[in-house]
Amino acid sequence: xxxxxxxxxxxxxxxxxxxxxxxxxxxxxxxxxxxxxxxxxxxxxxxxxxxxxxxxxxxxxxxxxxxxxxxxxxxxxxxxxxxxxxxxxxxxxxxxxxxxxxxxxxxxxxxxxxxxxxxxxxxxxxxxxxxxxxxxxxxxxxxxxxxxxxxxxxxxxxxxxxxxxxxxxxxxxxxxxxxxxxxxxxxxxxxxxxxxxxxxxxxxxxxxxxxxxxxxxxxxxxxxxxxxxxxxxxxxxxxxxxxxxxxxxxxxxxxxxxxxxxxxxxxxxxxxxxxxx
Length: 277
Fold this sequence. Notes:
This protein is an alpha/beta fold.
């Protein structure tokens, strides 16, 4: 990235922050640049400055760019062996709890949160569990709250479910019409979908498990540290943290306060120690 374009990008991100309150200034630059260049190409713009001017004068352009910056790649039982480990090694730990609180941060359209609800149901834990699924993007949250998934995706999701150790008929968890699969009402009702921005918002509860998978790879090191502190403060002693397979607690300020449960699946357990000790 040339020096001029670097300055233009900084000014664009500053403008977006002041106009909307959304702060992308500490997002990974290669990731942000891919999205900026995509929007420039789609609208035949020659420079970031032209895009910035459009952002100031065209509300629809600002909306489109915010959607470009929002990461919405997800699927049910994504990385099935992660969920298999959860099923076999982690959920049994929670059986003695009277209440189980789980936070899915960066939930997109909710598929991974729905996957966890199915795991909890099969473990006999759903009725005493509450899943909080959050995302900065209001539009994907509206989709998630409907509990419906394009039918074309269900074949792949069924395969993922089976690879995750699922022994039931996956089709028992939904009904269908010609276009969509509609998840069972008890699965949908077990999840509270809420807007929350990891960059600007703080902890809002204490959780026994936090899952934030394939979100932190889009943040720079400083922002990753900030978010990991929020997660640490939000986890109960002995709580579980699950990250994406390309993410790690290594090199973060809170790393020493966790023990590794699975390096393969990036699953960690918070030690029973305070952050300031």
